Amino acid sequence: MTNDSAVVLITGSGRRIGAALAADLHGGGYRIALHYQNSAAEAAALCTDFNQSRPDSAIALQANLGNPSSRDALIPAVMAHFGRLDVLINNASSFFPTPIGSGSDADWDALFDANARAPFFLSQAAAPHLAQNNGCIINLLDIFAERPKPKHTVYCMAKAAQRMLTQSLALELAPEVRVNGIAPGAILWPESGKTPAQKQAILDITPLARIGHVDEICKAVRFLIEDATYCTGQILAVDGGRLLR
Predict the structure, then answer these.
(1) Does this model's pTM top 0.70?
(2) Closest CA to 226 of 91, 135, 139, 129
(3) What would the pLDDT profile of 74-106 be if each residue is shown by its tens digit?
(4) Which of 30, 36, 155, 230 does the annotation list as catalytic?
(5) Nearest 5°: CA angle at 217, between 214 and 222?
(6) Staple partner for 115: which of 155, 158, 190, 239, CB 3.0–4.6 Å?
């Protein structure tokens, strides 16, 4: 896929990995639809920077992915502004523990809405537009879609559902649309913080003995968009080897 006027929608792109992906792809010539839920100031600042660099190359769109009417307005808004859609990156996620005995229906809804339900419905809405340009979908998964993380049963279930979504859509949308996933390991430390001992414990089970950098996720995404033209249904682990342990 060439990036000549191609349009990328990235969910959860106001901050952290999503913002890094947006900046990298915009720098590569793509036009960017920045979705955010609560990070209005950050998304607006990114959008302003992008449009100052290249006029009408970005738009910021607010949507609560847990609200069907808000979620379902997202793809039409991208089409109304840009008139095309080439790449959907389902990056937005919810992550928190649900120890057995404390999990609630509200926890289930929050984790499945962000990690499974919204990616399905956004992919369904985007599919006909992506097919027109032989576009692609990239789902940001987690290494815990394959193996359990203690006290995070509902999150792991939701990410496992997103993994199956990736593989199932790859079959259903072929040959017009490729669908792949990226499963990051530790890329950024949680904003809530970890103690030095907790950080070291993660490094001790990571064969490459370091956390990853956001630019390594950016390179993986760029590979799946531009170079992996004979790959679909694949999950690329960018985890420093943690799945080996």
Answers:
(1) yes
(2) 135
(3) 999 999 999 999 999 999 999 999 999 999 999
(4) 155
(5) 125
(6) 158
